[in-house]
Amino acid sequence: MIGRGEAMAQLQFGVIGHKGRMGHALEAAIADAGHIMHVGVDAGGSIGPFAAHCDVLVDFSAPDALSANLGAARVSGKPILVGTTGLEEEHFVMLAEAARAVPVLQSGNFSLGVTLLAHLVREAAARLGPEWDIEVLEMHHRMKVDAPSGTAKLLGEAAAAARGIDLAANMESGRHGQTGARREGNIGFATLRGGTVAGEHSVIFAGPEERLTLSHSAENRMIFARGAVKAAAWLVGKPAGRYTMNDVLGL
């Protein structure tokens, strides 16, 4: 959210996926920040006809809609913030291509606290040796459809990058049965689902006879909406390129 001492022009937001839980939170956060949701379209709708009249597009819809939404941003020349989860490698290729033409900011989590947590995870992973095992634990509400969460992957990527390894090649999840001993250097993921939990994430560094845990708890999805609105407003006026929440916070 914009601080009381900061002045910013009122912006027109185009929100894709506005009928979902996150869409409702975004609408409230946009109003709280003094901006306007110029248009909201459902996850299956097209922002294309309205994009030219918006200052920034915000996409919290579905992976299979990403191509069309990025296309609308490119045609209209508008910056786009993408918070859709469950993205695969092909989607990241699309994001990179779109970023050649317009500013693109994509993240698995727009919480300012989680952004700082990822920074701390990166610092810890870089300084603690390979004898420190890394495990990522996350819990979300029963309705969440993808696992591990985008935030869990973000934290795992932060740890992997700090150690100079590829997460996909060093990821352990869904352990069951006779799995054998844990392989040194792997990053483990555990997923919990139930109730109405907005989001709980912990990164555990388990070393010889000691353990370090870095955690974040989301009490309400409004923290993600406020962070997304702050990031989208920051994106307006930036040159074409890929941006992250680290850029927004100057990390």
UniProtKB/TrEMBL annotation:
Highest rank taxon of the organism: Bacteria
Q: Which Pfam families match?
A: DapB_C, DapB_N
PROSITE patterns recorded: DAPB
Instruction: Report domain Dihydrodipicolinate reductase C-terminal positions.
Output: 113-249
Dihydrodipicolinate reductase N-terminal domain: residues covered: 14-110
For this UniProt record, the keywords arranged alphabetically read as follows: Amino-acid biosynthesis, Cytoplasm, Diaminopimelate biosynthesis, Lysine biosynthesis, NAD, NADP, Oxidoreductase
* Pathway, per record: Amino-acid biosynthesis; L-lysine biosynthesis via DAP pathway; (S)-tetrahydrodipicolinate from L-aspartate: step 4/4
GO BP:
diaminopimelate biosynthetic process; lysine biosynthetic process via diaminopimelate
Broad EC category: oxidoreductase
Q: Which CDD domains match?
A: DHDPR_N
Recorded catalytic activity of this chain's protein: (S)-2,3,4,5-tetrahydrodipicolinate + NAD(+) + H2O = (2S,4S)-4-hydroxy-2,3,4,5-tetrahydrodipicolinate + NADH + H(+); (S)-2,3,4,5-tetrahydrodipicolinate + NADP(+) + H2O = (2S,4S)-4-hydroxy-2,3,4,5-tetrahydrodipicolinate + NADPH + H(+)
Q: Which InterPro entries match?
A: DapB_C (IPR022663), DapB_N (IPR000846), DapB_N_CS (IPR022664), DHDPR_bac (IPR023940), NAD(P)-bd_dom_sf (IPR036291)
Binding residues annotated for (S)-2,3,4,5-tetrahydrodipicolinate, in chain numbering: 141, 150-151
| Example of a GO MF term | oxidoreductase activity, acting on CH or CH2 groups, NAD or NADP as acceptor
* Main location class: cytoplasm
Q: What does this protein do?
A: Catalyzes the conversion of 4-hydroxy-tetrahydrodipicolinate (HTPA) to tetrahydrodipicolinate.
Q: How is the quaternary structure described?
A: Homotetramer.
Per the record, the similarity remark reads:
Belongs to the DapB family.
NCBIfam families given in the database record: dapB (TIGR00036)
Report the PANTHER family cross-referenced here. 4-HYDROXY-TETRAHYDRODIPICOLINATE REDUCTASE 1, CHLOROPLASTIC-RELATED, DIHYDRODIPICOLINATE REDUCTASE
Protein name, entry field? 4-hydroxy-tetrahydrodipicolinate reductase
- Source organism (scientific name): Erythrobacter dokdonensis DSW-74
